[in-house]
Amino acid sequence: FFSAMDSPKPPHSAVQPVDIPVINDDGCLSSIKQTGWHILVLMKKNFYVYKARKFSTIVQLLLPSVFILLMFLLSKAIKPTDPVTNPAANSLQPITRCKPWNNEDCHTLLFAPKRGTSAIVDRVIESFLEANSLSWADTHGLDCIGSECSLALSQHIMAHPNQTQAAVAFEEVSNTNVRYRLFANLSHEGHLHSYQAAFDEAIFRRVGNVSSFTIDAKTRAFPELADPYDGQTVMVSLGGVMFFYIAVMTQFVQILSSLVSEKEHNLRCGMALMGMTQSAFWVHWLVTAMLVNTVATLLMMVTAAICQFDIMLNTSFFCLFLLFFLFGLAMTSLACLVSVFIGQARTATIIGFLVFVIGFILMNMFASPSAIYDWFDPDITAIPRYLFIILFPPFSFAKGFHDIARLSGKAVAINGELVPGPGFDYKDLFNFTTDLSTSSWYQLSYSPPPTGDSFLWMLANFGLFLLVALYLDSCWPGNQGISRPWWFPFTLEFWLGHRRQQQAHPPPDHYLEYLDTDVSAEARRVFGPENTDVIRVLNVIKDYGFGTKKRAV
After folding, report:
1. Measured at the alpha carbon of residue 124, what is the angle toward residues 119 and 128, in degrees to the nearest 5?
2. What are the residues facing 140 on neighbouring strands?
3. What average pLDDT does the chain have?
4. 110: part of which helix (H) or strand (E)?
5. Sign of CA dihedral 363, 369, 371, 374
6. N or C: which terminal CB in the chain sees fewer CB atoms within 10 Å?
7. Pick from 135, 136, 154, 134: nearest CA to 144
8. What are phi and psi of 451, to 5 degrees?
9. What is the DSSP string of 357-408?
10. Considering only 31-35, 255-259, 464-468, which range has the smallest mean pLDDT?
11. Which residues are paired to 184 by β-bridges?
């Protein structure tokens, strides 16, 4: 990207030569001004690169908007359910013989007291069996009396699971009054009503001496109202945070690949040899990422507004833009941190998508508002919450998104109608409303942190990741020059901005006598006071081998 000032210009070059200001030795430009010039030149370099790659640049800027359009199309595919004003009546299910499971005993009816204890109970059970084509072999009786029978049945059922279809305990029996308690397996829908009707018929026939008595009962469900939720409300409240997460994370993968690509092709090393400072390198990439993130976010918000999403129409533009911008900023600094450990662009793409997939899986935990707010319940330990806040910026993004969607989106009122929310404005940034009269879904007994805290958390993520990236970039071993020691932030050289000059001493004469004549002459010339060479390499030592090293030079 840099060429000599007098080199010929290619006739159809996509990348133009860049004029580099000459920094004279007399200090006409300060170090800050020099770094500023470097940043401008590097920004110009990125501009030419993005301009040369028109298609990839357009895709990078429009991809977030594409995901918003996809969410809009999916919302239109969701159709509301029709009301059920007259549910159908269902007849009682017939009582069938119990089928054994795993070759164990199976009782169609468990009863108490056992056979022979009460003549009335025996007649009622016998009538029940005859009416349902069953026999005494399908039953099992327990030895108990009165109110003790219910407890005995419960203990037997708990001790013998999956062996009883229904049970009945006759607690009070006389010629004029029969009181019984019925146990039924609710996993078999309708069994309870069928057994109750069958025993009532048997009691009337045997105790009431009514020879032909039947109960014709049917069940009917309550009428159902139409589903008040429209497709937009369902998509935004249950899956909207996932689509916006994907839209922003595309920038993370692209920035990570670009950073590592410059390292892999030794472009950064070459620019460093030409005088580029570490601060100029990182600042120009952060500014580039912020510009790209800003344009992509604005296009995404315009697309969502055209699609008439409530979260865009009923939310302050500044608050919503700040949410997406800070999340993109936090993920950009995370990309800078991850790029320190990667040396190949192909590996960077794989790692970028791996981080994307892991984040997508974790974001499924925060897809619904109740899932994100449960993490702030006072009864839950705070350690996992703080780990997510410190190490996982999408957690703060999901919290801020649900806070905004909670007030700006539609909600179901107590009367079942879908009503618009009050909207989200500046005043709601640091004021969390726990009670909303428009919806019973969001009633909270505790108060989570306000939305502004989520913005501050993402800003803190940006600063933390960037500081760690700058530190490791200086001391992590790589091909970008000599790495500093891990304690370099505690040295005067780091804070004062200059290196300590080391005096190179010439080798002693008795050592030069053992060298070849031309080598000793060159050594004396290099160390001599009359030497005016601009660059001199002094006291070079070359060792080789492992364990007992041998010195070659």
Report:
1. 145
2. 110
3. 80
4. strand 109-112
5. positive
6. C
7. 154
8. -65, -35
9. HHHHHHHGGGSSHHHHHGGG-TTS-SHHHHHHHHH-HHHHHHHHHHHHHHHH
10. 31-35
11. 166
